[in-house]
Each structure stands twice: as structure tokens, then as C-alpha cells.
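pasting for the record
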Amino acid sequence: MNATVRNECERELLLIIKELIVSLNVEIEIDSEAFLEGGLKNCWKALGKNSAQITLILALFTVIISRIPVENKELVKLQIENLKLDNEIKQNELKKIKQEVKTDEDVTDEIVEKVIEKLDNDYKIIWHKSNFYKKLSFYPKVNKISTQLLGNNNKPTNPERTVFRNQFPLLIVHSDKFSPLIDDEAVIVIVSPVLTKGGFQWKGIYKGQVLSFEMKDKDFKNSVLNKQVEFVNGIAIKCVLHQNRKIDEIGVIQTISSQVLTVLEIVESNNIIETDQGKKYRRDKNENDKQMKLFQ
């Protein structure tokens, strides 16, 4: 097998194992052993203090790497807006499950499925798994991928799980786009406004970070061009901020563009001026919220 392809694929698999180790908060070291006979067989040995936790991690890995989703997910459909809260809930639930596993015999199919349910939408695992099969899809010499747990003396402890080449596309995410992040109460301190016509980027401070953004609020732009808004040091806007995101090759979420859709308020020291479009936005939002409650 091409050494570069093999190393890149191994890297993606190890990153999946890393995510499992982090999610379950266990201490495991992965060692690579000599190839086994029959095709190209890699043997990885997991070392750690808790045998049951090692068995759980490896059982999860063999299922995840070979499990074909019911539908081909796109990252844009994953619910990640409340990522921090979701992670806290997930960690608590995984901690409870981990406490149930005290011996190797406790690692049942039911326990594995319970953990898989909690990790099913883990975008990093999905992304690294997709990268693994994407790299293999361009390498025609690989006909299938099989995984199997081995016990002492490399004896199988469970059936082999296989993914055939014609199934690889079902495991590949075909878009790196994430669902946009929308903050409808964003406060941006204006650093560099655009005072002329053109598609130039504004600059401001948002959550302590420098932000370049496009001003899409035409009413506010006209007010600026007509010199109805005077920019002084410290002036800020409260606005609806729309940020497009994608995931990079190593599974890190990146913001690729930012747009201010509506300026709600202009804030200067203690003086707050609500814009006409801000009043309309909030009025429409309140009406929509009322309509949603009627259908709940």
C-alpha cells in the first residue's frame, strides 16, 4: 500500500480514537504492532490501567468505523449551536455509562449502543471517519476495510465487521459547510467604519476579538453615507450578526465570513438609539415567537 495514503488513513483513525478517549475521559495509550498475515493487517494494542475501559473504547471504535448511517449526513444539518451545553450534557451521561462498566463482561452490545447514541452527532468523529473513507476512495487497491477486537495471543473476541468499497461513499460527508451561527444580540464596537460606497469590509471588536464583517443593513449604510451617524471613539452597534462556518481538514470549526444583517441599536456611551429597522425586526420576531407558541 502507498505509504503516504496509509499514514494519512492511520492518522484519521487515531484521531477518532483520540475523540473517544477524550469523550469518555479515560487514559489509554495506543501502540502499533507488527503486521499480521493476510492482506494488509494492522494490529494496534491499547494499554491502560482499566481493562474494561480499554475494551469499551476498542468496541466503540470497531462499531463506529464500520457503521453505515441511515442517511448521508451533512455537517450543516448537525445541531451544534448549543455545542458547549450539548457537550456538558453528553459528558454527564457518558460518565454515568462509564461507571456501569467495571469488567470486560460489562461491555455488552447494549452498553456500546448507549454510548454510540451519545456520540452519533459528534462532528469531529464524523469528519475524521469521512476523511478516512474519502482518502481510501481515491486509492483503488483497497477493496474493503475490516475491524475486529483481539484478545490475548491475538485471538478474536468478536465477529469481524466489514465495509466494502462500494459502501465507502455512504460514509463520506460531501460538504465542509457548517450551519451558520446567528447572534441576534451581537454587540460590535466599531473600529473602522466604511464611509464610502463599495463592498469594503468594516472592522470592529466582537467578544474581545477583531472582526471583519460586511454591512448588509442598507438603511444603516445609507445613514452613514448621508452622515446621519457620526462615528466617535467607542461607538458600538447592537445587531443581528450572521457568520458562515466550515470545518477544516483537522476538524476545527472556522468562521469564513461575517455579515451584519440588521443594526438594532447605536450605542454611544450611555446614549442608546434604537433604529427603525431594529424596531421592525424585534416586532416581527415577537410576532413569530407568538405564532410558534400557538403551535406548541
